[in-house]
Amino acid sequence: MSGSPRKSELQDQRGPAARLGPGVLEGTFVRLEPLREGHAVALAAAAKKLDWGWFLRPLHTKADVDKRISDGLKAEGEDEAYAYAVITKKDGLVVGSTSYLQVTTGHKRVETGSTWYTSDTQGTKVNPECKYLLLRHAFDDSGPRGSSSPQTQQPSFPARNNQAGRQVRREAEE
Fold first, then answer.
1. Domains in the chain: how many in total?
2. Are 103 and 110 in contact, with CB atoms under 8 Å apart?
3. What is the CATH number of the domain that holds 101?
4. Assigned domain for 120 exists
5. Is residue 7 part of a domain?
6. Cα-flanking dihedrals φ and ψ of residue 72, to 5°?
7. Which three-class secondary structure string do you get for 100-129?
């Protein structure tokens, strides 16, 4: 067989690699649950409250949400991405979604992104805690430091998404 080895072959050569997901991540204000079909109705209801003008993959319909979940499960099966439903602990409502993207286990690299929240949770403790939970899990929970934890993480958002850029800069300054 010619060409470069597949991801699974690389993992086999290097021993078992710790996967970032799926798993529930629990904080003080939110719980991140692996995005599944059971979240579709609540996620579609939350998505209807959002202006999707600047999003690359808007969720206008339940069919859009179903496709997002299906695509997410496929990427999860390939250890390429992990999507989460964001649920507020106070009332148990689904208020958005966030993800690990571009997971490269062999190079210990991951991005966070594909994040959206209902307008009533934007600018609250929801986003900082979601990012904290994702980063804590990526760097601390997924294995011993230096062995399976990523060495690189970068937030990812479309250039048109000025709100996300401002939020990332504001959180970096705090």
1. 1
2. yes
3. 3.40.630.30
4. yes
5. no
6. -65, -40
7. EEEEEHHHCEEEEEEEEECHHHCCCCHHHH
Confidence of residue 126 (pLDDT cuts 50, 70, 90): very high
Which residues of 25-108 form beta strands (DSSP E)?
A: 25-26, 30-34, 82-88, 94-104
- Helices (H) and strands (E) in the chain — how many of each? 5, 6
Residue 5 counted as domain residue:
no
Q: Which of 155, 148, 116 is nearest to 134 (CA)?
A: 155
Residue 10 located in a structural domain: no
Let me know the angle formed at the C-alpha of 133 by 147 and 48, rounded to the nearest 5 degrees: 135
Compute the distance between CA of residue 45 and CA of residue 62 in angstroms, rounded to an integer: 8
Read off the pTM.
0.74
Instruction: Give rounded-to-5 percent helix, strand, coil for the chain.
Output: 40, 20, 40
In tens, the pLDDT along 3-61 reads: 444 444 333 333 345 677 889 999 999 999 999 999 999 999 999 887 776 677 789 88
CA 158, 160, 164, 168 dihedral sign is: positive
What's the domain range around 30? Answer: 18-173
